[in-house]
């Protein structure tokens, strides 16, 4: 068996939790909508815990008002989301009841995942819904979201939720057969079946495949989601949602779509939150020795290697760790506030004990609360 098929079969053999994302163009097609729910029902019969990230609220609102083009004005988009969201959930409820299970709606903004407490509340709510055998249907809260509260698109939201929940697989259903090579003349070539590393060439070749009149996104947003999920230690699968039985084919490990493989071992939940969700309140700039200790040797960040403090933060806040050139090498939870860090720059452990007592934290950021930056945030930026 070749590496591509082996990777697929190995994945589905141990898969237990799966995030499925469906785009507007699929959800506003009645036939494809029914096929999506039928496919999810088949996954549930495998005892897989399924969560659906659903676009389509704005598109459903457009259909209700008989609009052909997505408006540009934010308030108009928000109004369409408000109109369409209830209608969309009514469709989900009616279709899912045919297969004997219930749905539940969760509308999120980025702020819900940046706050550690709200992040845990979202995770716990989804776990409770799964215990009750309910399908969680999650969408960005487009009716209230503004730029600073937006995820950007539902591909990104699906990737974030997959990382947060520790799902083995995130599936993005689109209207393309998968990631495809691009010829020199700009035309699309063959499907790429297996991706073990996202290359600059793949990013450059990615073009928008969604219908801009109805939705946002495109293949570049799917690559961003893939970078995030694989950096968290899980798989992402892009496939054509128009293909009959596509979710069942994925569950069988068939050679459909594009499978992205993990870049690392699975991140712990707390480190996922630090890396992908928490907003940095400041930064600690380090010398070359400290940068190498953190990045290459798995060490904690000690005061002796810090040369500058940027921003204002409190104990327990998330901070970036930057090298002298400004490159972010890691993120972590600070043991000290910014004023204390500034006062302790360059101090060694014995000096800290004299200044603060023997029980003072020896590290600015302990390794257990630190995660390396990696490459996940750089696709298409």
Question: What would you note in describing this structure?
Answer:
The protein is of the alpha/beta class and 381 residues long. The chain has 15 helices and 15 strands. The chain has helices spanning 3-14, 24-27, 30-45, 57-65, 74-97, 111-114, 116-131, 154-165, 200-205, 219-231, 246-251, 269-277, 288-297, 338-343, 349-356; strands at residues 17-22, 49-54, 103-108, 135-140, 169-174, 180-182, 188-191, 194-195, 235-240, 258-260, 282-286, 306-311, 318-322, 328-333, 370-372. The strands form three sheets. The protein has an eight-stranded mixed sheet, sandwiched between helices. Helix 4 (57-65) packs across helix 5 (74-97). The longest helix has 24 residues, at 74-97. The protein is globular and about 70 Å long. The model is unreliable at 208-216 (pLDDT under 50).
Physical arrangement of strands within the biggest beta sheet: 3-4-2-1-5-9-10-8
H/E element string?
Answer: HEHHEHHEHHEHEEEEHHEHEHEHEEEHHE
Low-confidence segments, given as residue ranges, are 208-216
Report the sheet with the most strands, covering strand number, pairing sense and barrel closure: 8 strands, mixed
Helix run count: 15
Shape: globular
Percentage of residues in helical conformation: 40-55%
Distance between the termini: 37 Å
List the helices and strands and how they pair.
Layout: H1 3-14, E1 17-22, H2 24-27, H3 30-45, E2 49-54, H4 57-65, H5 74-97, E3 103-108, H6 111-114, H7 116-131, E4 135-140, H8 154-165, E5 169-174, E6 180-182, E7 188-191, E8 194-195, H9 200-205, H10 219-231, E9 235-240, H11 246-251, E10 258-260, H12 269-277, E11 282-286, H13 288-297, E12 306-311, E13 318-322, E14 328-333, H14 338-343, H15 349-356, E15 370-372
Helix pairs in contact: 4-5, 8-10, 8-12
């Amino acid at each position: 068996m070749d590496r591509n098929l082996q990777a697929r079969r190995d994945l589905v053999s141990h898969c237990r939790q799966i995030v499925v994302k469906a785009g507007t163009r699929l959800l506003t097609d009645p036939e494809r909508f029914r096929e999506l729910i039928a496919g999810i029902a088949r996954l549930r019969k495998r005892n897989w815990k399924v969560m659906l990230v659903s676009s389509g609220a704005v598109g459903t609102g457009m259909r209700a008002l008989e609009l052909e083009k997505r408006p540009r004005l934010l308030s108009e988009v928000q109004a369409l989301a408000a109109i369409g969201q209830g209608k969309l959930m009514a469709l989900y409820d009616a279709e899912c009841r045919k297969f004997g299970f219930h749905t539940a709606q969760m509308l999120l903004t980025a702020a819900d995942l940046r706050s550690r407490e709200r992040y845990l509340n979202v995770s716990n709510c989804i776990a409770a819904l799964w215990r009750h055998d309910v399908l969680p249907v999650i969408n960005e809260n487009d009716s209230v979201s503004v730029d600073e509260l937006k995820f950007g698109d539902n591909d990104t939201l699906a990737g974030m939720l997959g990382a947060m929940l520790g799902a083995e697989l995130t599936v993005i259903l689109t209207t393309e057969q998968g990631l495809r090579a691009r010829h020199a003349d700009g035309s699309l070539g063959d499907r790429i079946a297996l991706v073990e590393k996202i290359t600059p060439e793949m990013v450059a070749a990615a073009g928008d495949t969604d219908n801009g009149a109805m939705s946002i996104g495109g293949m570049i947003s799917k690559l961003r989601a893939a970078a995030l999920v694989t950096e968290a230690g899980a798989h992402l699968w892009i496939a054509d949602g128009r293909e009959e039985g596509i979710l069942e084919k994925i569950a069988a490990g068939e050679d459909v779509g594009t499978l992205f493989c993990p870049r690392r071992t699975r991140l712990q939940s707390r480190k996922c939150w630090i890396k992908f969700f928490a907003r940095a309140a400041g930064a600690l700039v380090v010398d070359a020795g400290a940068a190498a200790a953190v990045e290459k040797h798995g060490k904690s960040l000690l005061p002796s290697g810090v040369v500058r403090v940027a921003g204002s933060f409190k104990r327990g806040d998330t901070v970036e760790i930057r090298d002298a050139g400004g490159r972010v090498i890691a993120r972590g939870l600070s043991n000290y506030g910014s004023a204390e860090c500034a006062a302790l720059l360059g101090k060694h452990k014995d000096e800290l004990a004299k200044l603060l007592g023997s029980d003072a934290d020896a590290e600015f950021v302990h390794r257990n609360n630190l995660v390396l930056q990696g490459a996940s945030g750089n696709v298409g930026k």
